[in-house]
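B., you asked whether I could sanity-check this one before it goes into the benchmark set. Here's the sequence:
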Amino acid sequence: MKTSVIGFPRVGKLRELKFATEKYFRNEITAQQLEETAEDIRKYQWNLQKESNIDYIPSNDFSFYDLVLDTAVLFNIVPKEYKELNLSDIDTYFAMARGYQGENGDVKALAMKKWFNTNYHYIVPEIEDDTEIKLVGTNPFKYYSEAKKDGIETKPVVVGPFTLLKLARFTGNKSVDDFVDDTIKAYSELLNELSKLGVNWIQFDEPFLVHDITKEDLTLFDKIYNAVLAKKENIKVLLQTYFGDIRDSYENITKLKFDAIGLDFIEGKETLNLIEKYGFPKDKILLAGLVNGKNIWRNNYEKTISTLNLLKNKGIEVVLSTSCSLLHVPFTVENETKLSKDVLKHFAFAVEKLGELADLKVLAEEINFTEDNVFVNNKKLFSEDRNALNSEVAERIKNIKESDFTRLPAFEEREKIQKKEFNLPIFPTTTIGSFPQTADVKANRTALKKGEITEQEYIEFNKKKIAECVALQEEIGIDVLVHGEYERNDMVEYFGENLDGYIFTEKAWVQSYGTRCVKPPIVWGDISRNKSMTVDWSVYAQSLTNKPMKGMLTGPVTILNWSFPREDISLKECAYQIALAIRDEVLDLEKNGIKIIQIDEAALREKLPLRKADWYSEYLDWAIKTFRLTHSGTKAETQIHTHMCYSEFTDIIKAIDDMDADVITFEASRSDLLLLDSLKENNFKTEVGPGVYDIHSPRVPSVDEILTVLNKMAEKINPEKLWVNPDCGLKTRGVVETKASLINMVKAAKQFREKFNK
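And here's what the prediction gave me:
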């Protein structure tokens, strides 16, 4: 039995790449020093995999920002505006990812979207009419040679041509068909050059295949790969899929000249059925994705070996693999010093998953594997009771009524009541919630954790920051204020820390995008709230101003989707548990005089099934009801806001409207406000703030730029329903750029008001 890893985390064991890259952005280190850090990370993780006897070790799975962006650059898919900056290669790359504002020009970043059904984000390549797709980059060759120099044979990993073209945005008059031939030539040249280097295997990642695939898609896929595979010569090609099954393309793909096909057995609910129905070709290797690359719980060896034996009994040559890249889990359990061994033994992060692959590699070859201590101990682990259940929570879930999902009066009546209650100007201004988490804010939090300051000192510091934040917003002239969230480390982790049923890690960081890493909490047991979580902060902030102060909460679906969930109960049941806890908090905020409450559902779309037939039955039916459960008990005068980011919303816009919020803000600035047409076409009833500038870029938008955006919005959205806000929270931005951006935003809103009030 051989083993394979699809991809490995690239930020480093302790986020070394993040810190080095941010130093580079601040001009504190050179590009060469940044590259040296990256090289150390690559070498370290290759050796980890070698020591675990992984047979198919990936290279070129490393990235300074994003693998899709890397692939675009590899094939010269760089829009003119970035080339014309005349920056170095690395700075041009970062300009595409983050935007650029300096002496060489002023450009926005490329759009950023969710990577399928994960919390990772990819940069959307833009193909212009005069883009010449050709092989120009060197990373696959460089990284392969780097590993080879250390005596490690790797399989270069590249986003496949089909997925690249399907994810790209075509900005001119040309379409996919106009670029197919050049794409074929470019990928064929890549194979040829890798073959010259002596590469044995290349892995083409084609996750787009797990979507609903049309006949036109299949024709495109077949055309590309019939041509590319005809020229592969000595190199072997692995087609790697993940995040689901390939039911629409399985028959086609197994007939093509791939040497191996990687299939997901964790999320691919039809994968085994496809093999049963159509068989698997004898001339190909099956890479069976049976070690979960997206969750942190230990692998059940008995189940895995049972599946492996089933496949082997069919005469299939099987390689055991991860279900997807290990990018989506933390680096190693070894970094955790505060959780007990009884807890940690249930978890497998990236390094531990290498150990699981090594264990299973041995067990799968043993005739009497059930007598092996490794197997016995694993089976014992899954029979243990974690003592994490709560009978009161179970009773509350049982007693939920259908009426608990409906808020009264209906939206139209509430809207009139709230217009009178708040008397806000047309195009009211607000922010999404968080303000910059400066060094002193982080130091204050760290000091509390280390016991260097008292709880009261910690609170007083945060109150001082809140007062400064409120004063700044009043100075700028923002209409609906926020308290800045200085007490929060992360929008999900903070709530997890204040809810029963969660446990927390110290250094289990996972890359979200670029240098942005998150530390997802772990759902250990039943979730409940035993005290208020935000009321004191919100009430204090409201006491400082006569303007409305938003109470800021994270919604239950987002809390769940940005956590590592349990695997012993359904996602629906877990979501309802969290919803009841958030509902209690909403009602407490309302009781304490907070009249606007924002319940963020940034990650609503994240667990949306990739196949449309499953959208409602498997997810949206309960996800939307979960959100409604949080606010259905509020008064008509209480205004409920929500926020969504990093997603495509157009195809689920009716479901979003059905959340029955009063106001919703979107991250839409990076997608050129493509959402607006969908809002108009679907007669979106909820008041809306699509986001007038991109906060994920360090550049400051001008007043004229924001006015241009507002003009676009007002053409598609009823002005009486339009809010003016940044597209996301300001936590990661600097103080100077934040203030300058908000000043310009308010100036633009006021000028726009004058135009409409004439």
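One thing to flag: The first strand starts at residue 2 and ends at 4. Otherwise nothing jumped out at me.
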